């Protein structure tokens, strides 16, 4: 019977041609995403079994991001930053990037002010979490929901 | 050789909180991208930035592939004494860069 191939058949044939040219892996090259469970695991690896309470830390990220390749973020913690009471470390995690870890910043009383800024990549619209460790051993967190229109990590290969 | 930019106020009052901004040119290749032929591009990132103030470590950052290319990191410190702020970046494939600035504290 002489009929046009269906869309499915056409795509399958095109796919096998592409694979024959060694291009097939482009289709399947999307990296595995970190799942929220992996993020929890990564957080536990840093925090241990200590409880994490929302508050004290402020994660500032633009809510709508046009380009996920360089997203400015600022983390500020309410702390007097004295030798008795200061921020020891600030950690940043993501839900849906290929890896949950983003960065860890180690501060001390000599920081004067617990405020850190950097630029990160975001692979998808997701929740970003910042966790700070205070000198008394407690952990505090803040999260920000972001919408990403152009994702990082997915640009064409070189 | 990587080029780095450091922004620190040249002079400050004793006890003042100064902001330090650092920027270094680096591709921060994530290790998740592929070439058009499907070969994985190996990871090549800066793993760590350490800042010392007259030899004492005041700030350390551990970076992962989720940090954008040309890592920008801003933080602050107390201006305690005149001296040198030294910055040392280390990363994959033996990457290492050092930069230092002087500050006058009155």
Describe this structure in words.
The complex is a heterodimer of chains A (158) and B (106). With 158 residues, chain A is an alpha+beta fold. Chain A has two domains: 1-30, no CATH class; 32-150, Sandwich (Immunoglobulin-like). Helix content of chain A is 19%, strand content 37%. Chain A has three helices and nine strands, in the order αααβββββββββ. In chain A, strands 1, 3, 5, 6, 8 and 9 form a six-stranded mixed beta sheet that branches. Chain A has a three-stranded antiparallel beta sheet with strand order 2-4-7, with no helix packed on it. With 106 residues, chain B is an all-beta fold. Chain B has one domain: Immunoglobulins (Immunoglobulin-like), CATH 2.60.40. Chain B has no helices and eight strands. A five-stranded mixed beta sheet of chain B has the order 2-8-7-4-5, with no helix packed on it. Chain B is elongated and about 60 Å long. Chain B starts with a strand and ends with a strand. The mean pLDDT of chain B is 93. Chain A binds chain B through residues 22-26, 29, 31, 69-71, 94, 97-99, 101-108, 110-113, 115-122, 152-153, 155-158, and chain B through 17-18, 30, 32-38, 41, 53, 56, 58-69, 71-78, 80. Strand 6 of chain A pairs antiparallel with strand 5 of chain B.
Condensed summary:
With 158 residues, chain A is α+β, with helices and mostly antiparallel strands.
Descriptive labels:
heterodimer, A: 158 residues, alpha+beta, Immunoglobulin-like, 2 domains, six-stranded mixed β-sheet, three-stranded antiparallel β-sheet, 3 helices, 19% helix, 37% strand, B: 106 residues, mainly beta, five-stranded mixed β-sheet, 8 strands, 0% helix
Going by CATH, the homologous superfamily of chain B would be Immunoglobulins
SSE pattern of chain A: HHHEEEEEEEEE
The oligomeric state is: heterodimer
Rg of chain B (C-alpha, Å): 16 Å
| Amount of beta strand of chain A | 35-45%
CATH fold call of the largest domain in chain A: Immunoglobulin-like
How many helices of chain B does DSSP assign? 0
Protein structure class of chain B = mainly beta
Which sequence of SSEs, written as H and E, runs from N to C of chain B? Answer: EEEEEEEE
Mean pLDDT figure of chain B: 93
Shape of chain A: elongated
CATH architecture designation of the largest domain in chain A = Sandwich
N/C terminus separation of chain A: 43 Å
First-residue to last-residue Cα separation of chain B: 35 Å
Number of helix segments of chain A?
3
Q: What is the typical, i.e. mean, pLDDT of chain A?
A: 83
The proportion of residues in beta strands of chain B is over 45%
The largest sheet of chain A is:
6 strands, mixed
């Amino acid at each position: 019977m002489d009929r046009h191939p269906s869309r499915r058949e056409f795509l399958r044939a095109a796919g096998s041609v592409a694979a024959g040219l060694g291009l097939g892996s482009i289709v399947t090259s999307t990296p595995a995403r970190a799942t929220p469970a992996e993020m929890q695991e990564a957080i536990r690896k840093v925090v241990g079994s200590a409880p994490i309470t929302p508050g004290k830390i402020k994660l500032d990220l633009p809510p709508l991001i046009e380009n996920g390749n360089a997203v400015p973020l600022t983390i500020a913690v309410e702390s007097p930053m004295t030798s008795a009471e200061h921020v020891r470390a600030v950690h940043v995690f993501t839900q849906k990037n290929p890896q949950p870890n983003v960065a860890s910043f180690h501060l001390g009383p000599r920081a004067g002010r617990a405020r850190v800024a950097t630029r990160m990549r975001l692979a998808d619209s997701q929740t970003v979490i910042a966790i700070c460790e205070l000198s008394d051993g407690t952990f505090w967190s803040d999260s920000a929901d972001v919408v990403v229109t152009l994702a990082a990590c997915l640009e064409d290969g070189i | 050789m990587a080029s780095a930019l450091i922004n620190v106020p040249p002079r400050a009052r004793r006890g003042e909180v100064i902001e330090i901004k650092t920027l270094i040119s680096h591709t921060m290749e994530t290790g998740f991208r592929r070439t058009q032929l499907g070969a994985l591009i190996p990871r090549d990132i800066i793993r760590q930035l350490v800042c010392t103030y007259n030899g004492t470590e005041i700030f350390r950052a551990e970076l992962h592939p989720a940090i954008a290319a040309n890592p920008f990191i801003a933080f602050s410190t107390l201006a305690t004494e005149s001296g040198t702020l030294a910055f040392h970046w280390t990363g994959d494939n033996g990457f290492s860069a050092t930069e230092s600035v002087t500050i006058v504290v009155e």
